[in-house]
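Weekly structure sync, notes
Attendees: PL (lead), two postdocs, one rotation student
Agenda item 3: pending single-chain targets
PL asked that the sequence for the first pending target be pasted directly into the notes so everyone works from the same version. It is reproduced below exactly as submitted, 557 residues in total.
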Amino acid sequence: MKKRSLFEKAMKAVFMVALLSGVTFFTSCEDDEDDPLKAEITGFSIVDAGPDQATAVEGAIEGTNITVAVPFESDLMALTPEITLSKGAMVTPQSGTTLDFSEPRNFVVENGELQNTYSVTVTKAEPTGPVLKGLELASANTDEVYETEVDLLQDQINVTYNELQSHLVYISAIEVGPEGATYETSTGKDTLDLSVDASLTVNYAGESKQYTLVPEVTTAGFDVETATVLIDKSASSQAVPTEISDDKSRGADFNGQYVFVASRLNGNFIHYWDINPTVDEVKNLSMEGVEGGSWVISDVKCAGDAIYACNMVMATQGAEFKVYKWANVDATPEVVLTYTTTADNQRLGDALSIVGDPSTNGKIIASNFPGWGGNPDANEFYVFQADGGEFGAPVVWDLALEEAVKVGQYGRVNEIPGAEGLYLASGAEMGITLLDDQGNVVYEVPESVVQFRSFDPHVFEYNGGRYLSFTINREWEASGAFSQIVNITEGADIEAALRALTDENIGQKLIYTNVFSGGSNDPWVNANNAVVKDEEGNPMIFSFSVLNGFMVEEFTR
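Predicted structure, written out during the meeting:
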């Protein structure tokens, strides 16, 4: 046999190495062609689920949809995903980012020019131990639902309400689990007092879970301790001006800068005082052309800078009831309304009400005093509706009262801010009454809650609070002239707010009383009230009664 040379053997070895290298090269090319670029999520899990925030739960991937069922006690608003991706891919939001999964959310995977969007839905699995699944708490006074959050991680129930709302609540809705679980409260009933320690316990299969109620009370309204007197011309300070010191000065109002009082003492006047402490003098509106009527001047009301006043006509057919307007304190009056009485039982002008802007489409309202020559069985308000500043015949609202016998003297109607088509009415022989825009009685506040002779009521809002302000004149008492403020924050609307006042809670809801009478009784019944906001939105409250003068106080937070 022929022997091969060393050269031949070497060449054969080189050939074999080259051959093997070629095989390896072609195999590598084939592998690259089998593993193209991908933009995929290959694994998805939540790593901080459960009450311990340390439980890992793997998600199920179906196409571009991923679902994860975490323990019921998990906080869906703060969960952290761990995401694995195809080689070279990137995802937004990134893996390891704590996210809100209370709603399905998208994850976008990119790899080069490739992109896929995955929708991830995280749900709570049914509980296996006792748990509070949901809770709704409502005010025991008004049924208003409070903001309630069940914190399953801290085993507490956070209840948010403001300091003007009731701390007495009841369970209006509750869900516990698993099926067959029960609950009990620290009071043994569904009513709870949030001003003291309270808790709720869920029981199931021999296990129990207690949740502590945590009230979060926010500030609201004003602080009555901040009451500041802006002007005091009251009997309580022995400061009643001589110009209004007798029973011929029966009507008054306040526009935010000036206090106006209609008076027949020694003539016919509308006196006014500036509340600026550097100005302490009485001034008078022009009375040019003001004439006629049983009383030439009787009552006065404000609407912005404008001042309105009326005469008074006794119950006589053919008498002219007049309303005058001053554009401002320097203006000459003009007659804006003349109405000739059509029967001998019409006595108009004891009290005047202005609703809206009578120069456009507002209302002028005059009560027909039932008695002393008027119709003793009527509860009438004569409503003059403006149309471009012009007035036609009045519409008569005859109130169908049940709580009260009748309106009585000095009946007034005031609009309610934010409650279009609803009004508050008051009078000497009735309580505060809610009316609709047809004069129908919606609700009468019981006398046991707010006494009769709560004159000229106004509703106002401030810093999240809603209030009712009025002036009372119990002229048979030495200290019978006083203003009051009632907290009516609770209630979805004004009707609910008034209905929420009860004999049991009025002591808590009545937050302020200011007596401004001078210690001696008087026989005249009228009183007035007004609420005007200053430039910073703080309420200024005006109070007046016959023979007792007036005061203006301001309240802040």
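Discussion points:
- The radius of gyration is 39 Å.
- Residues 69 and 123 are 5 Å apart (CA to CA).
Action: rotation student to compare against the earlier draft before next sync.
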